[in-house]
């Protein structure tokens, strides 16, 4: 499909022309020093072809995009039992907010805010060794992406472990409401490592094939499961800018503070985008704009 | 399309078998006394055919579904200028909540919570007579539905006017932040009347054709406008149960406390559902379940 | 007591030297245009002598100080039944905040925030004509102050009535929770008029004699009643700066946006202070500093 | 003073007659198992005499009453610099609430809610060894009480350390806003040990002499410092029931979840009360009633 390749090239060029890059995440030392003028976009079509533009083979830290994979692994393991511990509603507060946990008695609003992701990982861990849960998540990511060349960057994980007081506060607060079953430090250690998975946009695009219901996807999760994950990504995937993303892009997406975005165009394509500078909501500045351009140029909006 | 008719009949039968009806809205006297064991569903397909089951020709009070039409009229009149006064984010608070208005300095989160709808109607009114704005909304509804047989029930409007202290509080609070340009009583009077529009599920289904991008739709609003309205319906259309609705149904929808739901399956169908009993979020109890059944049986989920 | 007169003179001089006047209340047109470089202080001692400095015979709008008198009148009429409708706790939110009403289901935190004062006045009104309730409050003020030369400024009341959208929002919100027994407009009309009572600092100081338990006080309310009113003034009398006022002044006090402060030094003196410019909390800027100076120079802190 | 002794005996008898004991703190295992039908009250008069009734020589865990001593020690060391990190306003939320920390960007409302006390202890610790800060607090308590027979119960401290996830969440949240200068674990370790100080009501009453400005008090802190501490105790000393306590008792007081209350009647007496069962606000059920009886019977209210 020649046209898709051209579209990605045009997006790549416009992003570099506009030169509005945002600021890399400052609170994780290993990420703060990244050169922000970087961009990559990859899209896989139903036939399995992957089109790319920019630095599509440069691995980056997927951070919160890992919440999609952890959720998938957890639902695969315990099914709907997860929903007794986490909600499915978008909120209008920041990704690391703790306020709603108090009014909601320790039950996070959804699995894509930090508190909800910590509970999800805790449910996956379930008394096992962190490395077992991490092997399960990483194995799933590799299967979904169709490659074993995906790793956890331990330095990033350690870097976050030293600094992430906010996540520690969330974990202990959840524990105070009995909504963690493991030692908070073990759950957080697992969570920080899952966030430190590194992927390229090509790998990210490949990993979303089953969510996009592409013919080329490996048989990992059921259609119903994929649909529900997409629904959560659309309503909650960009934190307190999720409504805006749905309004402007019209596709399920999940962002990470590493600057990545996994974007799903059901039955059309699975897309990976990366640019490390962030906007005020913690989502990739250039990546968000690229997603809107792609939706405009392809008409892939689900609406 | 024989199959769709059968599906609607099956849904109708299951709803009556399950006999789980919820409770009609108690705070509007005219609505409180409605018999709750009523149900209707209608779906229009791209070819313009309308399939129905149940009481599809019984008019009901569309209430908050009118917010979709008022938004459409307002965006048609002032365009994106509306967004300086209203946001586009889902919230996790009830439809008539006033809390977030305080932290957000009088700017409602989205046009589908009450405060946001009052601002939208205020922007449409813009110094004119209430009857002019109402004529504009009603005219739009009739055009979209392709029939002139749609009216405002003045008794319901008066009934609400007498009782709706919460909406009065919202209007005066908005005014205190300078986010109403008309006298609060005029804006509220217009709002209460727009909510008192009565339609059948057939008419409701017909009115959504343009949002669903059906071939049979009258040319009223642009595709971009329709997509954005659908995005808002999906993320915010069921108040603090919007995430849940997206998760279980996977289609843009807008509910009203009269028990109606307008449901959009892009390029597949436009659907009207009605059952007057409500669940705890103020959405039709049986109607919400019917929407989930329909999505399951047709595979129309956008995800 | 010569020394007290000298202290008041010194305070008066320092206030004028410091020339830090704040800004008169902007939201009530009649008050916004007042010259802010004005100051008065009066103190009545147990023997009935009244010492003053500055413009002690200039009447000003007592505004929220009227909440003390309305509370006194209401407790006199219905006693502790009031506390089923209003709490007795300080809050950390502004005087006109509406947020806590939502979480507290329409029960104001205390009788000195606006919502609590509106409920208090509503309880006093109790189905009667507004002029009856107003006559009762005004009569009480005159008795407590020992003079009939105290009036309501109708122009100020009308001015506020036209502009006070926030108070209207509060009243309708209270009504939506069933915590108003009269028509919101009648209760608000009474409230706006009670706030428009005008007094001089001399009259204000005289009116507080019974609260201060001075020998010269007319027998109006019981000692227990006075003590509890003082307790409320100390914990809640300066809104979200009440803790600060207790910390720096150490005396029960009630401020009004007209720039007045009623200050009670139990068994020592009753004090009236006025300077129309306000600080960021809606309390008199110079008046608050004068209160702190007086407490420092006299050692009258209750602590 | 014979009469005071009789009053305390009467209070003791009435408390045992009423037999309304509340429930001991459940979240600290070492405290949960305490027999709740215990009561003690002691009062020291200006001449240094200590009158008691009940189990006045039984040591109990002072818990949050230690916040008064830690505040005193910290103000003695760094003075008003503390107030850049902690506010002085009462709140209407529970003692262990984390919500307001988010809206206030990590600055606790006052030094008597848990978050504020943790910051206070952190400021006292200031890079030193926990045992140095603890020696300072314990030394101050012993000096104020005039006895060396006061110790920290290490078992209680360890018991709390294992369970207090809520306090850990507060500490890490404060750290995430840069409002802790020490490692959160060190600050918390110090805090848990300070809370585990054990005193009898006799010792507690003796320790409050300087706050009550009694002639018999050892010269430890200035009158101004004592007054301000008393003001904070009155407005914030009983958490979200502080207004109620001021209304009913009218004296500065600080409660602890061990069931103790330190009560200050300026220039009249310093009082220690203990009964381990708590009310819904985390304050001693019988102790709070005893404080109200004492104020009624003595007329010691500051108001």
TrEMBL record, chains A, B, C, D:
Keywords: Acetylation, Hydrolase
Keyword set includes Acetylation: yes
UniProt EC number: 3.5.1.2
InterPro entries linked to this entry: Beta-lactam/transpept-like (IPR012338), Glutaminase (IPR015868)
Source organism superkingdom: Bacteria
Any one GO molecular function term: glutaminase activity
Binding site for substrate: 64, 114, 160, 167, 191, 239, 257
Catalyzed chemical reaction(s): L-glutamine + H2O = L-glutamate + NH4(+)
Gene Ontology biological-process entries: glutamate biosynthetic process; L-glutamine catabolic process
Uppermost EC category: hydrolase
Pfam families xrefs: Glutaminase
Gene3D superfamilies attached to this UniProt entry: DD-peptidase/beta-lactamase superfamily (3.40.710.10)
Assembly and interaction partners: Homotetramer.
Family named by the database record: Belongs to the glutaminase family.
NCBIfam families per UniProt: Gln_ase, PRK00971.1-2
Name of this protein: Glutaminase
Organism: Methyloceanibacter stevinii
Lineage of source species: Bacteria, Pseudomonadati, Pseudomonadota, Alphaproteobacteria, Hyphomicrobiales
Name of encoding gene: glsA
């Amino acid at each position: 499909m020649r046209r898709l390749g051209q579209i990605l090239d045009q997006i790549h060029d416009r992003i570099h022309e506009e030169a509005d890059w945002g600021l890399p995440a400052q609170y994780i030392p290993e990420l703060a020093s990244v050169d922000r003028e970087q961009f990559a976009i990859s899209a896989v079509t139903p036939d399995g072809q992957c089109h790319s533009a920019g630095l599509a083979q440069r691995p980056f830290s997927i951070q919160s995009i890992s919440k999609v994979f952890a959720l998938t692994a957890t639902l695969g393991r315990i099914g709907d039992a997860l929903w007794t511990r986490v909600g499915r509603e978008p909120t209008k507060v920041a990704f690391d907010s703790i306020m709603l946990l108090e009014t909601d008695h320790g039950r996070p609003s959804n699995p894509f805010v930090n508190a909800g992701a910590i509970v999800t990982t805790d449910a996956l861990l379930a008394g096992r060794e962190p490395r077992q849960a991490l092997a399960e998540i990483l194995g799933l990511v590799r299967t979904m992406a169709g490659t074993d060349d995906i790793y956890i960057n331990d330095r990033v994980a350690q870097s976050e472990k030293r600094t992430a007081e906010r996540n520690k506060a969330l974990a202990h607060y959840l524990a105070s409401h009995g909504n963690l079953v493991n030692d908070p430090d073990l759950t957080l250690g697992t969570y920080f490592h899952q966030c430190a998975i590194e992927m390229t946009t090509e790998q990210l695009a490949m990993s979303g094939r089953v969510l996009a219901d592409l013919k080329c996807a490996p048989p990992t999760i059921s259609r119903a499961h994929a649909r529900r994950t997409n629904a959560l990504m659309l309503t909650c995937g960009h934190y307190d800018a999720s409504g805006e993303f749905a309004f402007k892009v019209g596709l399920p997406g999940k962002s990470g503070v590493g600057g990545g975005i996994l974007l799903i165009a059901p039955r059309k394509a699975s897309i990976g985008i990366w640019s490390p500078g962030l906007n005020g909501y913690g989502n990739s500045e250039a990546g968000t704009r690229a997603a809107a351009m792609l939706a405009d140029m392809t008409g892939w909006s689900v609406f």
